[in-house]
Every structure is written in C-alpha cells, then in structure tokens.
Give the backbone structure.
Amino acid sequence: MSDTMFQPRMPLLPQLDDDLVTRLLLALGLFMVASFVVFIPAWLLDPRILDGANVWTKPQKFNVSLALHFFTLAILAQQVPRATRSGWIMVGFAYAAALSLMLEFVWISIQAGRARRSHFNFETPMEASMYALMGLGAFLLIAVAFVLAIQIWRKGDRSRPGLRWGSILGLSLGFATSLVFANYLSAHGRYVGGDPDYVGAVLPFFGWSREIGDLRPAHFVSLHLMQTLPLAGYLADRMNWPAIPVVLGLAIVQVGIAIALFLQALAGQPMWPV
C-alpha cells in the first residue's frame, strides 16, 4: 500500500500535500494576494505620481507577480515525493525565498509611501545599499525555482511527461534567462539611449516606455517561462498532444521573443511605440 494514502492533504485544496514547504509557498502566495487587496484603496485614492504611474502601482505589480510565482511553485512541488520536499535543500531555499520576499515587500512598500523609487535608485547611500540588497533577494526568490527544477528532474513524477518537462524547462530556463536580463538591467538601468529619469508615454500598469528602449519587457517574458511552460506541458498531457515537442517548441519561441525584445531595447526602440 502506498504511503501517499497516509499523507495529509490541504483541507480546502486536496490536490496539494499538507507539508511544510507546500504550506509556506502557498502562504506566501496568499500573502501577496491579501497585500494586493489591502493596497487597493491607496492605489485608487493616493494622487501622487512616480515615473508616470501612481506611486502604489509598483507594489501592486510586485504583489501580482510574486503571488503567481509562489502559487506556481506550490503546485509544481507536488511532483516530487514528500521526503524530497521536506529535505533540508527545499526547506532551506523556501525559507530563504520567504525572507527575501519580506525584505523586498517592506522596502518597496516604504518607498511607495515616500513616493520614491525602490529600484534603480542611487540617490542616497541607504537607497543604493537597499537596491543592491534587493538584487540578492531577487536571486533567492528565483533560486528556489531552479532547485525545484533539479528535484523534479531527479525524483519527480514521470507519469505526466508534459508537466514534468514543462516544469523542468520552465523553472530552469526562467531562472537562467532572468539572471542574464536582470543582471544587465541592474548594471545599465532600465532605459537605453535615454535619461534614466526620463518620463514619457508608458504602457499602463507595466510602466514600460513607449518612446525609448526599455529592457524590462525582455525580463518579464523570460521570467514567466516559469508559468507558461508548465501550463503548456499540463495541457499537452490532458489533450494527448506530443508533450515534449510542445514544451520545447514553446520554450524556443518564448526565449526567442525575450531575446528579440532585448535586442529591440538595445537599439533604442520601444516594445510598443506610441
């Protein structure tokens, strides 16, 4: 008789195992959703503008993105045995990601309340130091995804090849390409061929420039490989499509789009011109 029959499940989400790492990842995602709701009044009523958008748009983008990130990890982690999820590697990286999330959440919220940038801000020693520290935090936020990809590759459920390879490729490629684009962004700033403080027409909510080269769309597309490839693999399994070609084909297309957006920004061209 399989020991999985005796593993406790989430009361409201019986598809998820009730272990420490799953609870932590799920709680972090729920915290981001709750924060998004709590910030809505300030987002709607505070008239202050920063970089062409409401000062609370930055924390709201952060809340949405990290909620998606941690819900994805909680679901994909179900592919590995409970013993692997409960091992020191997964537990350690999950806690490191949680601590990084709290650091970034507090600082981004404080800076929004002060109507000052949390990112690309070197105006004071404190703000420059916090930006550098957030770089380490961002690495730990996505490092847990790469560690999970390795565990799925080594010990994951092989009965659903689409989900398996979508998870392995999505989490590892999303980690690697995000590191490349994020490091370039950190070293060179978000804009190419323009004043770092430039404010012009931007894409609503995202804040990406529609007038000059902006490196952030490439980072966005690469980061969300972590969601699109597992979802494509899951659908391939459900629809009896050839799973690996579907996942691999989408990976090539999405990485290609990210590289094209990066080169477009380097040429000083906006993703979506006015």
